[in-house]
Amino acid sequence: MTKDKNIYINRELSWLKFNERVLQEAADKDVPLIERLRFLGIFSNNLDEFFKVRYATVKRIYEAGKGGKSELGGIKAGDLLEEITQIVIAQQSYSLEILEEIDLELGRENIHVINETEIKGVHHDFIKNYFYQELSPALVVIMLNEDVALPELMDISAYLTVKMTNLEGKDQVALIEISSTMDRFVVLPSIDEANYIIMVDDILRYCLDDIFNIFKYDSISAHMIKITRDGELDFDSDLSKSFIDKLSESVKDRQSGQPVRFVYDMNINEDTLSFLLKHMSIDKKESIIPGGRYHNRRDYMNFPSLGRTDLLYDKIKPLPVKGLSLEESIFKTIAQKDYMVYTPYHTFSYIVKFLREAALDPQVKTIKITIYRLAQISHVASSLINAAKNGKKVTVSIELRARFDEAANINYAEQMQDEGIKMFFGVTGLKVHCKMCVIEREEQDKLVRYGFISTGNFNESTAKVYTDFTLMTANSKILKEINKVFDFFEVNYKINRYKHIITSPHYTRTKLFNLIDKEIECAQNGKPAYIKLKMNSISSYKMIDKLYEASRAGVKIQMIVRGLCCLVPGIKGMSENIEVISIIDKFLEHTRLYIFSNNDNPKIYISSADWMTRNIDNRVEVSCPIYDEDIKNELQHLYDICWNDNVKARIINEHQDNSYKRNDKPKVRAQFDTYKYYLNKLER
After folding, report:
1. Is the peptide bond before 318 cis (omega within 30 degrees of 0)?
2. 684 is in an annotated binding site
3. Which CATH superfamily does the domain covering 330-490 fall into?
4. Is the separation of the CB atoms in 321 and 346 below 8 Å?
5. Which residues bind ATP (predicted)?
């Protein structure tokens, strides 16, 4: 196939289109009002991570003097940096319009977000007291001048740039750090049933005289700035340091990474802006973006609800899995049959209960588990420590380089290591991204294996908002091979062979190609041929080319891709048999599900792997086959519910316009209908 720029969509631009879909949720008037604010926070948080990682990577390519066209889908690195900046400026401008609209609607709901000029007299004492009791003791104020180097600014904080001018026209500039540990929103006493909220930024503006009263000035003003730094981790080569020590230092050093984005209040004085840019050594290679009055809008994810449940999504009560009880032994239950836990529709408690039971059961001898992102308070980690205290042989492979979750993982890794748990910190050159656990239990003088394989992290917090499948099984064929993966962690040079599971980095591409080739063969012979895929992202050109080949052969391909999609669907002679949708809704779609027709005898896998080069070649991943017929039918039904979504699904096409999938059929909202499906299943 001739490769040109029309065959693939650049991954950075595709990702920005994904984040635009998040912004669409913030703009959607059918979304509860406070949830709209939280989607604005998600949009902003996503953008922060994008600049720390993807923009920073393109910037590194540019600064290395490389064009980058082959790596960047036919676009030069310098041109891409400029295009990203222009798109982000437009998105930021739109997000400000959305925020203004939401503020007006909040006012109609008697919720008033006020600034320092709108403070009522009855709130004066409360705000002053809050400033002196809560803010002032922890305040960091940095005085700036030409003779003193500007200290490194942290990208997890925002800063108020304060300019003081005296009667002689001399300026003094200072920075007030708004730490990420401060509550960004302060709820003020209500007045006649009206609610008032003020941002901590505006409390600081209101109290500027209290902060700078030792200076003599004629005028004072404050405008916000925010910096984003390169988020890559650089490791030193000191062989005397442990991996944990190196990583801990690298996480700290991330705060002094090169700037990749600078956002400022567009109303800031031009001289003050030039002063800051000069002293921060920021030039045109950085993304310099004019913004509104407030930055770090990721904080909107924690906007106070004020008890207004009518302005929030209805909370769902996680359901039990039919046939699987928290009041009975999970070992005994799954010895009879496989079960699928689908969080957040089902409770995550099954995973914790399984590990708790293993920690106490005297017949359990070993527990092996991979961990990618732990919750700040992790019952999974405490269960493993409990098991070690009870004499179980516990092995944990923990990925300390799980981006932006390193600190929690390092903390628990040290605790587990102190308890004598055998730790693996990844594999040289590879991230361990698979999610699996195998437990060996002594039964009638032999070891019997039980375990679970998941698409998601064993994390209590994300399990409430990420959709993920976890297969709980005693299938000896699958678990024997899962055990082999743990052997690989210990002996990296030994490459095992697998008959059932599919593993990266050694076999994923080959095995998936074989499954696709089977569909191509069926299509050419006039037999049923289809592929249904659900994943977060697809950017591997080799995998895309293979799907193009299948499309040309007549294989019908449906894809649900939440995030970036470098594949161009619906192009005659190339991808006309490929359809792609993306679903953005209340929960984050995180499941990876592969369904191959196999001549109407479907082969179905759940997986930890997206179809990205990193997942296929540079990570340890596991795709697990589903053999239980009931679960196979369930997964096919769940896929169809998602595919038929005509409320929250967007169509991905060559135009990348994020248009909604609309039709005259009865309304299907995948996440709501999935919950109804499980409710009906329990009732049946």
Report:
1. no
2. no
3. Endonuclease Chain A (3.30.870.10)
4. yes
5. 46, 466, 562, 590
Measuring CA to CA, how many Å separate 223 from each of 176, 281, 294? Answer: 10, 20, 9
Spatial CB neighbours of 501, under 8 Å, sequence gap ≥ 6: 478, 481, 482, 485, 622, 623, 624, 625
CATH of 1-109, picked from 1.20.58.310, 3.90.1580.10, 3.10.450.50, 1.10.579.10, is 1.20.58.310
Q: Is 201 exposed, middle or buried (0-12, 13-18, 19+ CB in 10 A)?
A: buried
Q: Is 213 exposed, middle or buried (0-12, 13-18, 19+ CB in 10 A)?
A: exposed
> Which class does domain 116-233+261-315 fall in?
alpha beta
Residue 590 assigned ligand-binding role: yes
Query: Is 379 among the residues known to form the active site?
Result: no
- Examine the pLDDT at 234 and tell me if it is beyond 80: no
- Residue 62 three-state SS: helix
SS3 of residue 306 by DSSP: coil
- Cβ within 8 Å of residue 415, ≥6 positions away: 381, 385
- Kindly report the backbone phi and psi dihedral angles of residue 322, in degrees, each rounded to the nearest multiple of 5, phi listed first: -60, 125
In CATH terms, are 1-109 and 502-683 the same topology? no
pLDDT in tens, 483-537: 999 999 988 878 899 999 999 999 999 999 999 999 999 999 999 999 999 999 9
CA angle 113, 116, 122 (to 5 degrees): 80
Q: pLDDT class for 1, splitting at 50, 70, 90?
A: very low
46 marked among binding-site residues = yes
Q: Which CATH superfamily is domain 502-683 in?
A: Endonuclease Chain A (3.30.870.10)
Comparing 26-35, 160-169, 228-237, 653-662, the range with the smallest average pLDDT is 228-237
Burial class (CB in 10 A: 0-12, 13-18, 19+), 30: exposed
Q: Is 38 annotated as a binding residue?
A: no
Contact 222, 204 (CB under 8 A): yes
**DSSP E strands: which ranges in 200-280?**
219-229, 259-265
Which ranges constitute the DSSP H helices of 361-441? 379-389, 406-418
From 123, 346, 433, 637, the catalytic residue: 433
Q: Is 386 annotated to bind ligand?
A: no
